[in-house]
Every structure is written in C-alpha cells, then in structure tokens.
Amino acid sequence: MDSQHRSPEYSSLLLAGPRAGPLKQAHARLVVTGHGHSLPLITKLATLAVAAGAAPYAHLVATSHPAPDAFLFSSLTRAAAHRSLPRAALAFYRRLLSAALPFSSFTFTAVAKACADLSALRTGKAIHAHSLLLGFGSDRFVLTSLVVLYSKCGQLAVARSLFDAIRDRSVVAWNAMISGYEQNGLAERGIEVYKEMQVAEAVPDSMTFVATLSACAQAGALDLGREVERRIVSERMDMSVFLGSALVNMYARCGVVDKAREWFDMLQERNVVTWTSMIAGYGMHGHGHEAIKLFRLMRREGPPPNHVTFIAVLSACAHAGLVTEGRDAFACMRRVYGLVPRVEHYCSMVDMFGRAGLLDEAMQFVHDYIPGEPGPEVWTAILGACKMHKNFNLGVEVAERLIALEPENPSYHVLLSNIYALSGKMHHVEKVRNTMIKRRLKKQIGFSLIELGGTSHLFRMGEKSHRQTREIYQYLEELVHRITAAGYMPETESVLHELEEEEREGALRYHSEKLAVAYGLMMSSGSTTPIRVIKNLRICGDCHLAIKFMSAVENREIIVRDKHRFHHFKDGKCSCCFSNLNSTKTDHGVPLLISHNGASGDYPDCTDLAYQKEVTDGAAVIDCALQVTKDGSSIDLKDVSTVVTSQFASLAVVIEDIKHVAEVYTLNFNWEDIANNLKSNRPPRKS
DNA sequence: CTAGGGTTAG
Questions:
Q1: Which residue has the higher pLDDT, A665 or A222?
Q2: Which sections of the protein are PPR repeats (predicted)?
Q3: Span A343-438: which CATH code?
Q4: Confidence of residue A492 (pLDDT cuts 50, 70, 90)
Q5: A531-535 and A447-452: which strand pairing?
C-alpha cells in the first residue's frame, strides 16, 4: 500500500522474495548503488535468504556488516526457527550473545522452538535459564514455547509446571499441552487437559480438536471423539485437511472403520496422511482387501504414497494373507516411488511370508533383499513364523541368535522359552527361566482396560482389588466351563511362558484380558453392543483362543485392541486370522466406552516418581533464576540462596544449570562465591 | 525506511 514510500532497493528485495538467486542479484544492486551497509536493507535481504533456505549465505551477509545490530540477528534467529533450520537459529542466537547485543522475548520463543526441533534438552535448559536471567520468566509466549520444548524432550512434568505458571493461557498454550501429552503416549492426560480447558471456559480452535482427536485415537476414547466431532460439526469449523485426517484417524483407530470411511469420502481435501490413516484403519481391523483396494485407488488418483503408507499396506497384506499383493506393493515401492525400504518394511514382508506358512520364502527374502546383517526385528518376525508353524529347530536357532545379539533383553529369553514349551521340552523352559531369574530379567507387566458407565476398570493378571472380584472370578469360572464344553482346550504349554505376557503357572485363566472381557460380559448380559477391551501388550495365544469361543457361546462381538492391532471376535472367529476370515463386518451401534492409558496414568509404575523429581528440580531452577536481576550482571546472593535452600534437594542441579548458561554464553559470575554462599545457607538437617 | 511470537494429522 505504501510502496511509493519505499525505496527502489527495498522494493527490489520484496520483488525477489524468498528465492536465493534473485536475492543475490538484488544484493549486488545494493552494493553497486551504495546501500551495501544499510542495516534495514541488509536485514531484509538476509531474512529473506533464510526463508529461502540459504542460511549460510544469510550468515555471511549479516556477519560481513561492520556494525550488525540486535534487530538483524533476532530477525534471522526467528526466520531460521520458523523455517525449521534449528542449527542456523542457534548460530544466529550465539552471534547476539558474542556481540553482547540485547535480547528480546521474541528471540527466546524462536530459539526455544529450535531446541524443541532438535530435542536438545541440555541447550534448551540453558536457554530457559538464560531467559529467566533476563527477566522473561513470566512472558506467556516464552513460557508456551518452553512447554513445547520440554514436551518434545519428554519432560512432561516440567512442561506441565511451566504451563501451570502461564497466567491468562492462550489457546495455543492449551493446544501445546494437550499435544505434548499425546505425543508422549500420555493420551489420557491430554484428554484431561482438554476437559480442564472446558472448565476454564477457554475457547478451543481447530488445532485443539486435532490434538484432542489424536489423543482419543491413541486412548481409544471413542465417546469423547464423537463429542469432539459433534462440536466440530455444530460450530461449522473449517474442515482443514488436518482436522479431516484427525477424524478419519480417530474413527479408524477406535475401531469404527465405516465411519472413518464416511468422513474420508466426505472430505474436500485428502493428502497422504488421510489416505494412509484410512488404509491403516482397514489393515488393523483385518480388512486386507479393502486396504488393497484403497491403495490401488490412491495409486491411480491420490497423492504419492510414502514410507508410512507402505508400512500400512504391507502390514494389511501380512494379516490378510495377501502374499501376491504384498509382493507387488513391495516391488513398486522402490521402482515407482523411489522409496528405500526400511526395517519396518522388511519385517512386514517377513511377517507376511511367515504367517502364510512360507518359511522358506521368508528366509529367502531375508537373504536376497535385506542389505547387511538383519537386525533383531527381522529375526523376531522369523521367530513368530517358526512359532506359528511349529518349526522348532529353526526357532531355537533364531532365538539363540537374538539372545546373543542382546543378552539383557528379557523378551528374547521369553521367546526362546516359548519355543521350547511349544516343542514340549519343559526342562529347557525351566533352564531359560532360571537364567532370567539369575540375570534379574523381568517381563513387562500387562494390563487390560474396559470402561463401563464412564468408569475405567483396569485389570492385571490375577487382579483381586476390584470390589466385584468374587463375582468376576465366579463368572469367569463358569465361562471357562462353557467354552470348554464347546471345545476349548487351554494352550497350556505355550501359555506357561507366553510372549510378553503375564506369567505365573496355573494362573493362565486369569490373564488380564480374560478378566476384562468377563467383567464386560457380566455387566452387560442381554445387550448386543460389542465388548471393547484395550490391552497394553500383545494378546496371548490362549486368551485369543478363549475369547474366540466366548464370542460364540455368548453370541457377542468382542473387540480387543492390543499393542499392534484390533481383534474383532465374532461367532468363534477373529478378524486377525485370515484363515478364518469369513465375516468382515465391522462393529456398529454404541459400543461400551473404552479408555486406555498408553504409559503411566493411573497405572502404578516408576514414572510418577521420576515426575516428582523433575518437578522439584525444574521449580528450583525457575525460582532461583527469577531472583537474578534483569540485566544478568549481578546476583543478589542472599535472595538466591533463600529460594534455593528452600528447595534443598536440587541445589546441585541449580548451580549446574546456571553454570552451563554461563559457560555457553560467557556470562561472568563468581561461581565459587555463589556455591559457598548457597551451601552456608543450607537449612539445618532434621535431627 | 525494518516483524512480530508459541500450537496441528499416520
């Protein structure tokens, strides 16, 4: 609008835009016309160069200026962070430091994002401390960027404490916190934040819904997913490709494939993620043919598939026994799309041959296609096939190879003992067991969840803490009698030491998934809605068989989502086994609400302890640095020590963190004085 | 003569 007020030089820069070639021409013009030292022009030039991806050139332009100012380097820092050039952003930030130029909060948001992109926790902490030293400790933009930083580095407790410290939280801050939990596998906590947001009457935007739907997908929280969908529709939100994909993904991963497809068809815009989510949804539920059909359509009229698409396609083929289709897909991956297969693709292929009983082909594939020495993932896939098709000699060989590769990994010992158990060599099973005990190797603990009437019920093997324990066990006993009468035979030997499974002899009938399913059936007899259970590990072979029978004798659809996929049990069959896949009908109607926590949540493990420690340390750093005066030149030692000694446990951490800031950013403090002062002001120990 | 921040899908 005011282009007539701008100099021709400035206009020529704008005209060049974020393109390296034209920018260099404009640069030449600046030099020739004598504007080569104009800071505003050089700033615009260098910033555009960063936007063009030419960070080294921008760096050269900026540093060759005789008197660069703060505006120049902070603009460059921002531009680089924005273009996801984190290393360049940090380099420009260091220029500001070494030139002793002033900082603004804008610089910190940029450089925090750069650290987040790099997952650089140590540098990120130093930048955090530095921002505190300069008095930006309560800037809501800086705090939000730090929430993202600590989330990306897996430090959720620190992220949360910073989030809590934000006064007047913006929707961006809420979104960052929801997505932070979700990305770290703590979907339940993300959902809690979404609910807190409602209570706080903060206004959500489309990113809020995208993040929340992802959390729902991860947690299997179908009811909340539907609620979010209703809001999206009733508020007439713009259906961006992000939002659309999030909806497809939510429905697909919650097991409502038809609804996922409805959205998929309805969307105006579909990209590779939308297509991949839908294909993966089909594959996960055993609809291999649908997956392939959609993949073919994608090849004809969709965006080019990528690595993730091929993982979905190959896994769908493996589970549906579509060997020819899988082979074709694998072949076109590199030839047509130039994608180099990764270990996941190799594993899916091996798994595919293995499941189809083509063990020789699997071995041949490993030999012909996998470059170098195959990794443990590939051997594990081979082993799965050996187990399935009872090839004990090869199985033992492979398991021993795996143990040699990673002696401390408990799951390989479990696999070996499974093979021995299946082949009836019980004395070998005992030997492996003893080895595990001697080396203190423990299996992961499994649990299953079912949500009824808005309350989530968690079961571990042999769980006795539920208030209806007696009824549940009684119900399960009766159920086992009935399925036994129908022909069920416990897979005793294999279950005795099942893969990644709850163990303890004689307790196989009380595996967590059996308890959860029994509870669901008991509490809803007479109903026709499917039973939905989520398990954190893979379902065990015996439970798989038992639940097939349960679906028949109870005439109920039972859906179990395990670590890898969905199992739709109906009429004595499961959707995951292509050999008995006759009915491919998906669920419909209102299912029992299921909730699930991916990692810690209510489930007692060591995570919460770790959280406690983080909170203390993080709070101490913040409190301490807040006591430091704004220009960073002097510290009131008394104030610092008062605060820090109240957080006595984390004294060392505080000193270390601030020291690190000083080293990197050449701030001159007298560390010995500070340390001594802090120590002498320690509170008396409790007697 | 110079901008303007932090958050999204498999």
A1: A222
A2: 170-204, 271-305
A3: 1.25.40.10
A4: low
A5: antiparallel
- Determine the protein residue whose CA lies at the shortest distance from the C1' of B3: A75
| Å between CA of A18 and C1' of B1 | 20
In chain A, positions 565-594 with C-beta closer than 7 Å to nucleic chain B are: none
Q: Which two tokens stand for residue A506?
A: 């004689």
**Cα–Cα distance measured from residue A309 to residue A278, given in angstroms and rounded to the nearest whole number:** 10
The domain ranges of chain A are: 187-270, 343-438, 447-580, 607-680
Question: Which of chain B's bases lie under 7 Å from a protein CB?
Answer: 1-10
d(CA A538, CA A499) in angstroms, rounded, equals 8
Among residues A188, A156, A272, which one has the least CA distance to residue A602? A188
pLDDT of residue A672: 54
Measuring from the CA of residue A141 to each C1' atom, give the nucleotide at the shortest distance: B6
Please identify which residue in the block is written with the tokens 């359509």: A297
Residue A244: name the closest of A217, A266, A225, A276 by CA: A266
The pLDDT of residue A397: 87
Is A129's CB less than 7 Å from nucleic acid strand B? no
Hits for CB < 7 Å against strand B across A residues 281-310: 306-309
Q: Would you tell me how many other CB atoms lie within 10 Å of the CB of residue A640? A: 22
Q: Is the dihedral of CA A80, A84, A87, A90 positive or negative?
A: positive
Q: State yes or no: pLDDT of A205 exceeds 90.
A: yes
Helix, strand and coil percent figures for chain A, each rounded to 5? 65, 5, 30
Tens of pLDDT, residues A360-404: 999 999 999 988 888 888 888 888 888 888 888 888 888 888 888
Which ranges of A83-166 does DSSP label H, i.e. alpha helix? 86-98, 105-118, 121-133, 140-152, 156-165
Identify the residue whose Cα has the smallest distance to the C1' of B5: A106
Which nucleotide is the nearest neighbour of A252, by CA and C1'?
Answer: B10
Mean pLDDT across the stretch A162-179? 93
How far apart are the C-alpha atoms of A537 and A230, rounded to whole Å? Answer: 32
Average pLDDT score, chain A: 79
- Mean pLDDT value across residues A198-214: 95
DSSP state of A4: G
Predicted confidence (pLDDT) per residue in A27-85, tens digit: 998 988 889 899 999 999 999 999 999 999 999 999 989 999 999 999 999 999 999 99
Q: Integer distance in angstroms from CA A339 to C1' B3?
A: 40
Say how many C-beta atoms besides its own lie within 10 A of residue A648's C-beta.
13
Nucleotide nearest A178 (Cα, C1'): B7
